[in-house]
Amino acid sequence: MNDTTSFIFKVLRDSLFFKDLPTDVLTSLAEIAILKEYEKNEEIFYEGEKALGFFVILDGFVKIYKISSKGKEQIIHIFGAGEIFAEVVLAGLKAYPANAKALTQAKLAFFEKNRFLNLIQRNPQMALVIIGVFAHRLKNLLQIIENLTLREAHERLLSYLWDLSGYGSSDKIKLNISKSQLALLLGITPETLSRIFQKFKEEGLLEIKQRELRLINLDKWKSLIKTLT
């Protein structure tokens, strides 16, 4: 196993989706991966582009987004190390349904669709991984719909920060994206986001030092989160 394959193997082994696979299957998976590197703000693919495979993030952050006919951007999701995106190609889509861009310098493992499907035929347990990925993605999409249609702006930020904290397992949070990108992700204006952050500070819920955040009074946070469910 060369250095690149070994690096990909380690990320897959630590990934939520692949960690339970046997070592030999993980090795086979790492061996068919193609390492791709992107600069910050470099496009990975565009909506409508021919979909040849999917990606696992080895390092960095990637955003999936759509652009409206009027040029308005809506971020659908932001992914980090160990996460999968563009897996919809495995459901038979011929073209990517959204755009993907590197938010930071990023290293990705690219899996060509046909080679991956051949691997599944030899290792059926891989199919369970993909079912798990689709189930996880469906849950995320339902949460996005709920946030954008049923929740007020401050509730969206409240829920997002709670998720980042590991549902209260830590009171410290580091934002890995800019506030402008966060505003797009939450479907609100940067001005509104700034006002909400200030409101949370004034209410004694949050301390902010640039991108370093600290949740204050976790019991109060838990109480507020309960009102959202």
Task: Give the topology, please.
Elements (H helix, E strand, L loop, with lengths): L2 H12 L8 H10 L1 E5 L4 E3 L7 E7 L2 E6 L5 E7 L4 E2 L13 E4 L3 E7 H10 L2 H26 L2 H12 L7 E3 L4 H8 L3 H13 L3 E4 L2 E4 L2 H9 L3
Antiparallel strand pairs: 1-8, 2-7, 3-6, 3-8, 4-5, 4-7, 9-11, 10-11
Descriptive account of the structure:
By secondary structure, the chain is of the alpha+beta class. It folds into 2 domains: 3-135, Jelly Rolls, CATH 2.60.120.10; 151-226, Arc Repressor Mutant, subunit A (Orthogonal Bundle). The chain has 8 helices and 11 strands. A hairpin with a 2-residue loop joins strand 10 and strand 11 (212-215). Helix 6 packs across helix 7. The radius of gyration is 19 Å and the shape is globular. The model has no long low-confidence stretch (mean pLDDT 88). InterPro entries: cNMP-bd_dom (IPR000595), cNMP-bd_dom_sf (IPR018490), Env_Response_Regulators (IPR050397), HTH_CRP (IPR012318), RmlC-like_jellyroll (IPR014710), WH-like_DNA-bd_sf (IPR036388), WH_DNA-bd_sf (IPR036390). One of its GO terms (cellular component) is cytosol. Residues 151-219 form the HTH crp-type domain.
